[in-house]
Amino acid sequence: MTTLPTPGFKNWLLLVTLGVVWGASFMGSKFALTGYPPLWVAAFRICIGAITLTCLAYALGRRLPNWNAPDGKRIWVHALGMAIFTNAVPFTLLAWGQVYVTSGFAGITMAVVPLLVLPMAHFLVAGDRMGMRKVIGFAIGFVGTIVLIGLDAFQLSGRDWEPIARLACVGAACCYAIGSIITRLCPPVSTMGFASAGLVLASAIMLPIAIMVEGIPAAASMTAILGVAFLGLFTTALATIMLVTVINSAGPSFLSLVNYQVPLWAVVFGVVLLGETLPAQFIWALGLILIGVAISQFKWNRKA
């Protein structure tokens, strides 16, 4: 049985960076939704990401996957899977869900992703097996996330559509889990080319839907424009490159650890940039999450 290599410093650095970027995405979505409806928030961030990443790929001499290559058709099928499950559907569900639910609840649903990836990777990804160590580590990390957000996030406010919006956030977490497995199972291909292909296909899906459902968007404030620009350039284009890189080199289970960081960074940005109060349980939650990550990634050395 093959095993995935030790993640190494590069993948840990990318994982932390992804946590920072995605932790700030809730703030970016909040700003974007002040001027654009949910479908257009998702469509704009995907289109901006697709244009940025494709132009960068060609500027660096990269290309989109070759359809006529031996694995070309299969690669494009995986790119379509990534477009649907990593970009189009979850971005739409989260943007719509955040209109009705608290950012705390949206954040905690991201912590569900590792719990979904773990059994999927066990059966579908060679070398990414689910042992007791991983199960315990992921469970402790999940408890730490719940401690951070607090049980108040689960209380209904009585707003219309809130129960369905909560299901939408959970559905987005399920999509991210499926998308990471699809990406890992893709044949060898240029990281930037594959990421660009996924975003191009996602743009082709989202633009017609946004136009048909919500019409042409009206002029928005500079706050909303900066919000979608941030989402497109950083949380979509840059994050997609890092996401594909980590999945291909360290596996979906390792990448899913980023979802325990996202609520932590969301709190940090709220305190530093929005003047919010640091939750009293922050240190306890941070400790639990770090312990969970350490247990899930620690490998016993019998010679030691």
What does this structure look like?
By secondary structure, the protein is mainly α. The protein has one domain (8-297). The protein contains twelve helices and no strands. The chain has helices spanning 8-32, 38-59, 72-97, 103-110, 113-124, 132-149, 162-184, 191-214, 222-250, 252-256, 258-274, 282-297. Helix 1 (8-32) packs across helix 11 and helix 2 packs antiparallel against helix 3. It is globular and about 55 Å long. 49% of the residues are buried.
| Number of separate domains | 1
Number of beta strands: 0
First-last Cα distance: 24 Å
Low-confidence segments = 300-304
Q: Beta-sheet strand percentage?
A: under 5%
Q: Number of helix segments?
A: 12
Structural class designation: mainly alpha
Mean pLDDT: 82
Keywords:
single chain; 304 residues; 74% helix; 0% strand
Q: Mind sketching the topology for me?
A:
Layout: H1 8-32, H2 38-59, H3 72-97, H4 103-110, H5 113-124, H6 132-149, H7 162-184, H8 191-214, H9 222-250, H10 252-256, H11 258-274, H12 282-297
Helix pairs in contact: 1-9, 1-11, 2-3, 2-8, 2-9, 3-7, 3-8, 4-7, 4-11, 5-7, 6-12, 8-9
